[in-house]
Specification:
By secondary structure, this protein is an alpha+beta fold. It folds into 2 domains: 89 residues, Phosphorylase Kinase, domain 1; 183 residues, Aminoglycoside 3'-phosphotransferase, Chain: A, domain 2. The chain is built from 9 helices and 11 strands. The strands form 4 sheets. Strands 1-2-3-5-4 form a 5-stranded antiparallel β-sheet, sandwiched between helices. Strands 6-7 form a two-stranded antiparallel sheet. Strand 1 and strand 2 form a beta hairpin. Helix 4 packs parallel to helix 8 and helix 8 runs antiparallel to helix 9. It starts with 5 loop residues before the first helix and ends with a helix. It binds adenosine-5'-diphosphate (ADP).
């Protein structure tokens, strides 16, 4: 974790063309240090980390934010700059002044996400890897969702858990059986642009009370993946699901499939934060 030094201050002031008048830490992130920077009356948001550990993390995050902005469905913060200054890397962007949710917040979120999901590609994945938390997220492209999900999502996380002795032989066997049969459960759909880490902590109301998405891990995948994550750690409002389904109906049985998609973020959490996530994983595989 890095903090502000003179070199960084000089560079930011040069980009923003003014003197920094305050730097206030913003809590809440798991991976980076975040700050609100003021230059006179204008505020900006900055995340910083070690350029040695994560040389290209913010370039990738900036690209993800831009892909989501281009989809034109929801307010996504505008990136101002991402750079490396000595041993620090930073991502400077629009500051979102926290507002109160508008009365149509969840409806607008549903419609907006449906619009984002309407952005398609011919293959599942992305041209480059990115990050999910501090872990590398493989995005090697596949024609088949099942191949992508098994080879780029589940298998690498199981291997990592295995290498760090976080997973039992029995659970690995259950995963092998799951991976050999999982193809039968997914719907046939085109790859959709995903936020990729859409837990409830990655949405916030902007100053006008409109929904805003932050901290993505984008790729093209089945859109049920994003929907599933809206129910993993907390739950979006039911209005969200109604509005989404009005614009871009999910295929029958979507609610029963949610747990299978969520095995991936649960495995990510197992690898990042330890074995407290095992019971949830075990329950899903038992039910499968
Ligand atoms: P990390 O990459 O470390 O997980 P986040 O992107 O989640 O960091 O940001 C940390 C916290 O900062 C979030 O919980 C959110 O409340 C706040 N935040 C994120 N982006 C902005 C922004 N553009 N403007 C204002 N606050 C933000």
């Amino acid at each position: 974790m890095k903090t502000f030094n003179q070199q960084l201050t000089d560079r930011i002031e040069s980009i923003l063309n003014g003197k920094i008048t305050s730097v206030i830490p913003v809590p809440g992130g798991d991976i980076n240090r975040a700050f609100r920077i003021s230059v006179g009356h204008d505020n900006f948001f900055i995340k910083i980390n070690s350029s040695v550990k994560f040389p290209d993390m913010f370039r990738k995050e900036a690209r993800g934010l831009q892909l989501l902005r281009d989809a034109d469905g929801l307010h996504i913060p505008q990136v101002i700059a991402f750079e490396v200054v000595d041993d620090t890397t930073f991502l400077l962007m629009e500051f979102l002044h926290p507002g109160n949710r508008s009365p149509h917040y969840w409806r607008d979120m549903g419609r907006g996400l449906a619009t984002i999901h309407n952005t398609t590609a011919s293959v599942f994945g992305l041209e480059e890897s990115n990050y999910i938390g501090s872990l590398v997220q493989q995005n090697t492209q596949h024609w088949s969702w099942t191949d992508f999900f098994v080879q780029e999502r589940i298998a690498p996380m199981i291997k990592r858990a295995h290498d760090h002795h976080l997973i039992s032989k029995k659970l690995e066997q259950q995963f092998n059986s799951f991976m050999s049969k999982v193809g039968e459960i997914f719907p046939l759909e085109a790859p959709a642009l995903l936020h990729g880490d859409l837990w409830i902590g990655n949405q916030i109301p902007d100053a006008s009370g409109n929904p805003c998405l932050i901290d993505p891990a984008v790729y093209f995948g089945l859109r049920e993946t994003d929907i599933a994550m809206t129910r993993l750690f907390g739950h979006f409002s039911t209005e969200f699901y109604h509005a989404y389904n009005e614009i871009f109906p999910l295929q029958p049985g979507w609610e029963e499939r949610m747990d299978y998609y969520n095995l991936y973020p649960l495995l990510v959490h197992l690898n990042l934060f330890g074995s407290s996530y095992l019971p949830q994983i075990e329950d899903i595989l038992e039910a499968f």
